[in-house]
Amino acid sequence: MTAPANLRGWGQGWPVNRSKDMRTVRAARSGVAFVVHHEIAPIIKYLVDEVERRGYLIHTPGQTPDDWSYNNRPIRGTRRPSNHSWGLAIDIDATQYPMGSRRRLPSWIVELFRAHGFDYGGDWRTPDPMHMEFNGWPSDARRIVARIAGQTPPPYRPPPTAPPATPAPPPTTPGEPDMVRFLTSHAEYGSRVVVISDDQGYREAGVPSRQDADAFAAVMPAVSLTPKMLQDLRTVHGASTENGRVR
User: Fold this and answer.
1) How far is CA 104 from CA 24, 92, 94, 118, in A?
2) How far apart are CA 145 and CA 137, in angstroms?
3) Would you tell me which of 12, 88, 179, 205 could form a disulfide with 16, CB atoms 3.0–4.6 Å apart?
4) End position of a domain, from candidates 131, 149, 167
5) Is 166 part of any domain?
6) Distance CA 120, CA 132 (A)
7) Which residue intervals of the chain are DSSP H helices?
8) Are 135 and 188 in the same domain?
9) What residues make up the domain containing 112?
10) pLDDT tens, 5-21?
11) Which of 162, 133, 163 is nearest to 13 (CA)?
């Protein structure tokens, strides 16, 4: 079973109402609707359409709907939020694959979902063979969506709420929405340094004043890196410093 979604960057689940984060997607052939978090909605749409394209009809016409998704509730019998309360889980043909049953969805469906970041409830100690839940972070979802679309992920935009106090600056390099940003103390700069790193690149730049550093730290996480840890990070990326820029 995956770690709780609040530990993976998705915010709080049940009893918080997350309905504003949800989007509805429909399987192209059967028309079955799934209400899921907007970050994974394109993944779910692709997967259910692909499942039906390969010949598995998710819902039999005329039967009572038994395909479930967003539900603001705890895990049955507990006070812990269900991944359904974040819109990160779906149940497929629940009456055919009820909780506790040893009957499993076809293995190719399970493997298709696994290849796109999902865990399968049929593998749990108490099997839940109808159940699929996304096991990654929001940045993982955006990378998978980009892979499906065959293009670089666009800058992340949260669901519309109140206008932000200060507009976020546009990304300066491809992939920047998924980059990790943090502050660290480092003797090389005599102050603090902003380190931006992900699997596509690495940059660093000194923060000229304590005031600027404090302003940056107010909106970005701050961590402490030893000189050795910073050098190890450069080594991983094959980076070298030159004119204050690393790549």
Assistant:
1) 26, 11, 11, 15
2) 13
3) 12
4) 149
5) no
6) 5
7) 41-53, 107-114, 138-149, 210-217, 227-236
8) no
9) 5-149
10) 999 999 999 999 999 99
11) 133
